[in-house]
Specification:
8-stranded parallel barrel; binds pyridoxine-5'-phosphate
């Protein structure tokens, strides 16, 4: 059965637009959990542009499904993760200027640094997953590192500009899933998935979990708008 991890970073993005107190990401997490999310995902970025340490601590207290922390391998973040102890840490590359995580981790080139962080997290009892591109070399490097879970970056598939390109990147993804599964890895996938491009990915055999954030929060704004307006109108009348 395919699991859904719901990334609630962008509930916090909306809060940070006003540096205010709503929407409360913890509230979003509870709603997602009640609606059937199999895990709650947040990215504590080094620049704290959306999720804060305080959010992570509250989520650790209240989330009953798996709490998956996306994080870079920066020492400060690793220390916070070891202290808070989410169920899972997904190691991602992080650049200050990017709007979102642009590519997978380069495990081949950063083997030692990633291993150090993964070992430290593992010793704290946190399951470690690596967010990598659908690339055999990266999958081999993740295995060599002793990792048992990977998340394949679906961005190239999701951002394809036409059917031909999408087919090409879909094939790349499918091949990578099989390659990793044949080598005994647990395979998750995510990034850029939405209500239009997800059905095809959901049919790939061997993927255990899809992690989706932005499109769910976007949909929530629209499907919740009518109710929100009715509530405000009732209040002022
Ligand atoms: N998986 C990982 C590792 C990510 O970094 C992100 C983005 O935070 C996602 C999944 C979700 O991507 P999106 O917000 O585009 O659905």
């Amino acid at each position: 059965m395919l699991n859904l991890g719901v990334n609630i970073d962008h509930a916090a993005t909306l809060r940070e637009v006003r540096h205010g107190i709503e929407p409360e990401p913890a509230f979003a997490a509870l709603i997602a959990q009640t609606a059937g999310a199999d895990s709650i995902v947040v990215h504590l970025r080094e620049d704290r542009r959306h999720i804060k340490e305080r959010d992570l601590c509250i989520l650790k207290e209240i989330v009953k499904v798996k709490l998956n922390l996306e994080m870079s391998i920066a020492e400060e973040i690793v220390t916070i993760a070891c202290k808070v102890k989410p169920d899972q840490a997904t190691l991602v590359p992080e650049k200050r200027q990017e709007l979102t995580t642009e590519g997978g981790l380069d495990v081949v080139s950063n083997f030692k640094k990633i291993k150090q962080a993964a070992d430290k997290l593992g010793k704290s009892g946190i399951a470690v997953s690596l967010f990598i591109d659908p690339d055999k070399k990266q999958i081999d490097a993740a295995r060599k590192l002793g990792i048992r879970m990977i998340e394949l970056h679906t961005g190239r598939y999701a951002d394809a500009r036409n059917k031909k390109e999408q087919d090409k990147y879909f094939k790349e993804l499918e091949t990578a899933v099989k390659y990793a599964r044949d080598r005994g890895l647990h395979v998750f996938a995510g990034h850029g998935l939405n209500y239009y491009n997800v059905p095809r990915v959901a049919k790939i055999k061997g993927i255990e979990e899809l992690n989706i954030g932005y499109s769910i929060v976007c949909r929530a704004v629209l499907v919740g708008l009518e109710r929100a307006v009715r509530q405000m109108k009732a209040l002022i009348r």
